[in-house]
Design goal:
The chain is 5% helix and 65% strand. The protein is mainly beta and 474 residues long. The strands form two sheets. The chain has a 22-stranded antiparallel barrel. It is globular, with a radius of gyration of 24 Å.
């Protein structure tokens, strides 16, 4: 454990130093402090209780947002400690949960040496089969604070118009504040330290129709409660533009995945072939098929712009990862409740096959987002094998310059292979916001959620939340 603490201290120190090395005076800075006070009544404040309990919950959220944009640095930083007061609790009335999203992209030596870094602190549910909620005010022992940090320096060199090379190292750390916790049967989540080194060489302007990228990469995850997991990859990607709208795609390479006693073990040739079709400015389609994950698989990414402000996307991905590596992915879920659509918090390797369909756009004073997904999970632990279906819809409309209303609906259905039990969860919300002054905004909201599952009878039933909040931007 001491080793992990030293590594994360080194990571954070280096990230902080890299930000100050860059000439801060050359950037445009915007600092936005704010504070929100929210009073919520819920009829199910303790999700672990066998019977619903009502309570008025006070939430105080000070927040600091920093944005810096310059010719050689971009910084985004947002931190908010969420304080909760539960007057109806006889034992522990106070709770503090942290939230942090930050990223740094800096150019230390012009066109040569760069540093990317990120730090995130979020609240995640340990096990989807136990107590879950679409609202953060309810309490449960199934929620944990998860931190993820990443630091990535890289060098870039250009060989005239022939090619460009990038040498990159990435250090990542995922941890939770408490000790390692059992999340489900024979499954524990612990801290992880990952290292990745890569060298890529990409064709330059001299290559007009034929483009190529050569990649060699090594990655290892040192997992606290599981065997280490390492991947060695050597791959060449090729694309050849046959016409203005049609391009052939392909890759060939070698990969070795080393995970003791895991289905993810692999040592051999990888390849795929496909195409990219762009028949016009509104439509694009990319498809690949081949052997990438010890067995044939494919990938798909399609987009159609109905109008300049309305877009529909369809995608399919097939990946083998641990939760710790999923934590670094973009988790802006297609679900209105991102925490509910998150992966299991575990150290096990997981193969995830996922279809996603999204529709988003703006029409006049109305914005909307609609989405649906299907995911299939396969893991070393049968308890984590799952099929998941879901969908979400959100609509927001500005009635005038001060008043806006919004509504949302989300649905998740999980089918667990270990016991053939279905778990349904859905949530509906409506809210109204009014700008009281230039710096004050009031919001009134209502949320209803319901759950139907057979494993724990005490967790069935619905929850209601009525909230009133005032946010002041300083």
């Amino acid at each position: 454990m001491q080793y992990y603490k030293k590594q994360i201290f080194l990571l954070l120190s280096t990230v902080a130093a890299s930000g100050f090395i860059v000439n801060a005076n050359a950037a445009n800075w915007r600092v936005t402090p704010s504070i929100a006070v929210t009073e919520t009544y819920t009829d199910n404040v303790d999700l672990d209780s066998s019977s619903n309990q009502g309570d008025f919950v006070t939430q105080i959220t000070p927040q600091i947002g920093i944005r810096g944009n310059g010719s050689r640095m971009n910084l985004l930083f947002s931190y908010a400690p969420n304080y909760f007061f539960y007057p109806g609790d006889d034992d522990d009335k106070h709770e503090l949960r942290h939230s942090l999203q930050s990223s740094l992209n800096s150019e230390l030596i012009s066109e040569k040496f760069f540093i990317d870094a990120s730090a995130n602190i979020t609240q995640r549910f340990l096990d989807r089969r136990r107590a879950i909620s679409s609202e953060i005010v309810s309490r449960t022992d199934n929620r944990r604070t998860v931190q993820s940090y990443q630091f990535s320096p890289y060098l870039v060199h250009t060989f005239d118009a022939w090619a460009s090379a990038q040498l990159r190292y990435t250090l990542g750390h995922v941890r939770q504040a408490a000790d390692a916790e059992q999340t489900t049967v024979d499954t524990f989540f612990g801290n992880t330290l990952s290292h990745q080194a890569s060298l890529s060489v990409t064709s330059g302007r001299r290559f007009s129709k034929l483009n190529w990228t050569f990649l060699t990469q090594y990655q290892t995850e040192n997992r606290e409660n599981s065997n280490n997991y390492s991947t060695t990859t050597v791959r060449t990607d090729l694309s050849y533009q046959l016409t203005n709208i049609f391009t052939l795609l392909g890759s060939v390479g070698y990969q070795k995945r080393n995970a003791v006693g895991s289905f993810a073990n692999f040592n051999g040739l990888t390849w795929d072939a496909g195409f990219r079709l762009v028949p016009g400015p509104r439509t694009s389609l990319s498809f690949r098929y081949g052997n990438q994950l010890r067995g044939n698989t494919f990938s798909l990414d399609a987009q159609y712009k109905i109008t300049s402000k309305n877009v529909i996307n369809l995608s399919y991905t097939d990946t083998i990862q641990t939760f710790q590596s999923f934590a670094f992915d973009d988790i802006s879920s297609v679900n209105l409740d991102p925490a509910l659509n998150s992966e299991f918090i575990s150290g096990d390797l997981t193969r995830r096959k996922k279809w996603t369909l999204k529709l988003s756009g703006t029409r006049g004073r109305t914005t909307y987002n609609a989405s649906s997904f299907y995911s299939e999970y396969k893991s070393d632990n049968l308890a984590l094998d799952e099929e998941r279906y879901g969908g979400a819809l959100s609509i927001n409309r500005n009635l005038n310059s001060r008043l806006s209303i919004g509504s949302g609906l989300s649905y998740n259905l999980s089918k667990f292979a270990s016991d053939n039990i279905n778990d349904k969860f859905w949530s509906a919300s409506v809210n109204m916001s009014y700008q009281l002054s230039k710096s004050l905004t009031g919001t009134l909201g209502y949320v209803h959620s319901d759950r139907d599952q057979e494993r724990f009878g005490s967790l069935n039933g619905g929850s209601n939340y009525i909230s009133l909040s005032i946010r002041a931007t300083l």
